[in-house]
Amino acid sequence: MQERITLTLPSNIRSALDVVLVEEGKSANDLINQAIAEYLFFREFHLLQERLTAKAQQRGITSEDDIFEQVS
What are the tens digits of pLDDT across the range 17-30? Predict the structure, then answer.
């Protein structure tokens, strides 16, 4: 199911967006959907990374060398 939202952009961002749309031959809808999907993916990735880092630190793993020692 698709839902409609309305965005208000500062004129400088809208101008930059228009340039990219022409260069990439995409619609604003496609580019904004892609940008939001990528943002959500990387947000989830960073949250996972933070949780795993905290767990590793609780176990005394603070460097890549510590990880290597654990898996070797």
Answer: 999 999 999 999 99
Q: Which domain holds residue 50?
A: 11-71
C-alpha closest to that of 32 among 12, 46, 40: 40
Q: What Cα–Cα distance (Å) separates residue 18 from each residue in 33, 34, 36, 54?
A: 15, 15, 17, 41
Q: Contact, 46 vs 40, CB < 8 A?
A: no
Considering its fold, how many domains does the chain have in total? 1
pTM of the model: 0.74
> Nearest 5°: phi and psi at 10?
-60, 150
Q: Is residue 6 part of a domain?
A: no
